[in-house]
Amino acid sequence: MTPQLDDDPRATARLGALLECINDAAIIVDEAGRIVVFNRNARQLFGYDEHEVVGRQLDILLPEGARENHARHLRGFASSAEPIRRMGGRPDVMGRRKDGSIFAAEASIARFGSGDALEFLAVVRNLDGLRPGDAELVLGARAAKAQFLGAIDHLSEGLAYFDADRRLQQWNAPLCRLIPDIADRLQVGLPLEAFTDALLAATSRLSLTRFGDDATGTTAADSATGEFVGECAEFRTSQGRVVEACRRIIPDGGIIELYRDVTDLHAKQAALQRAVGEKDAMLREQRRFLAIANHEFRTPLAIIDSSSQLLRARLKDHASSTVTTRLDRIRRAVERIVDTIDWAINASDILDAPREERIESFDLCVLVDEITVALADVHHAARISIAHPPEPLVIEGDRSLVGHAVENIVSNAIKFSGLSPEVVIETAAEGDVARVAVTDNGIGIPESEREAVFERYHRASNSAGTPGSGIGLYLVSRVAQLHGGFVRIETPPRPGTRMVLGLPFRFPTRSGDAGEKGRDDEVHRDH
């Protein structure tokens, strides 16, 4: 049987005679993949008579594992600009005989005709001289390749592979799902430039850095290092999904492009940005409220302070020492209220390094005494004892911040110790660090939560019913960090809590090292 390529019967006869005379198997199939011509050497190679194969699909001559891949390549060749693909000199084709045996072969393929008359001529050459078992090895390699190609179809990422000539050779199903508008344009042999044009036509570009039009000029250095060409690009598909694409050069000069859906990631980033914006707005509102409260509180406090000063001056020579002491306590209480308001208003500044102009040298023992006297004026039921070393503990730092940190620790010790608080405050030098240890007889902190209580807004599980915001110990930890020190919880010799604040005698360098270290490492807590 010969193909009707021409109305000239002589041309048809010449082609038929030519196909019968060549030493290789020659097979002609139509556009639908049905066998039209099956020459003498094809009959000898495959073991079929002509009437057994003509009109049947070419798949009958291929192993099952190679049929899908072969059909894909045939479709790509049909739509490409190449008129012929010659034998590549390597066993990249597998054939299946009538008896079921498999053999390795080489093949050339040519296209002729057009439209409904499109046909393909395949010239197949058996690879003579193979050693026993070589065909099986080649078949195994082909099967492994088929398994690999099947595996990449199960990836969540889309993949496209271009050979060293920048022509599309392989792609997977996820790529077509991610960007369905380019699925019909994909074909074996499609140039990289045409692929990129199709991609850009099917999507709206969100970001692009040396990807697409200008990425095709990849250098040898890119191939040698295997680095990504430029930055990953992002596109929005017609379905509204955001797809990230990255390109990688591989050692043989080919290109692999990876695509992944980052729509959910974008949504999470947008939600995070909104949350940050809402938090900033809340902080601004909080500062505005505190500023108003500051103004409203300061006026009556100033009146109380000036009145107490006036009373003390007028009663200087007549009042008893008890009255004078009471007036002094009123003035100290007013000062502490004003200082506490300032602390609340400026608490957010504790997240940054202290201002250099506020760093000074001061005696930690004196500071602890001042705080203890002020708290004793308020908490009359608390029994507070202090133990200092014989020598002063002069350290460098922000005296106000350190004072608030110590006050917070002592206040917590009193607050969580019930109706009869017993608090012991000990100061000591330990190497290059000054320590303040506060021990109470309160409810204690569960050992499993001794790290968590220093986190913002965290309160111990046994603190229910006791007022608190969960921010005090967090601010204590930040003060410790900003001074290059530590805060930790130790197990006391009796029921209760023992909290230790350690501060270096010398303040860290003014370059902000302590603040940066604090942000990176969090609080240094020992057990």
Structural notes for this entry:
By secondary structure, the chain is α+β, with helices and mostly antiparallel strands. Helices cover 40% and strands 21% of the residues. It has 14 helices and 19 strands. The strands form 4 sheets. Strands 1, 2, 3, 4, 5 and 6 form a 6-stranded antiparallel sheet that branches. α9 runs antiparallel to α10 (321-345), α11 packs across α12 and α12 runs antiparallel to α13 (472-482). The longest helix is centred in the middle third of the chain and has 52 residues, at 263-314. The radius of gyration is 42 Å and the shape is rod-shaped. Residues 1-6, 211-230 and 510-527 have low confidence and may be disordered.
Short description:
The chain is of the alpha+beta class and 527 residues long. The protein contains 14 helices and 19 strands.
